[in-house]
Design brief:
Double Stranded RNA Binding Domain, three-stranded antiparallel beta sheet, alpha+beta
Length: 82
C-alpha cells in the first residue's frame, strides 16, 4: 500500500493534513490552515520539497540552544480525527 495524505478539519475548524505510511502510521502532520485550498497547497509543497530536503541530525545540545526549546508540540496535533 502507498502513502496517503489525509485532509480533515480539526476541532477549531482549521483544515489540516497528515501523511500516513503504507502501514497506516502517521509520519507527518501539517499546520492548521484557514481554507481547504491552503491545506491543499501545503500538501503540494510537501510533495515538491520533500525529495530534495536536507537531513539534519538534532542533538540534545542543538535542541537546547534553539529558540523556543522545551515548548509544547504544535496545537491541534492531538485533536485530529483518527
Amino acid at each position: 500500500m502507498t502513502a496517503t495524505f489525509e485532509l480533515y478539519r480539526d476541532k477549531t475548524g482549521e483544515y489540516r493534513f497528515r501523511l500516513k505510511a503504507g502501514n497506516g502510521q502517521i509520519i507527518a502532520t501539517g499546520q492548521g490552515y484557514a481554507s481547504r485550498s491552503g491545506a491543499l497547497q501545503g500538501i503540494e509543497s510537501v510533495k515538491k520539497n520533500a525529495a530534495s530536503a536536507d537531513v539534519v541530525e538534532i542533538t540534545v545540545a542543538t535542541v537546547a540552544s534553539r529558540p523556543g526549546a522545551g515548548s509544547s508540540p504544535d496545537p491541534g496535533e492531538d485533536d485530529a480525527p483518527q
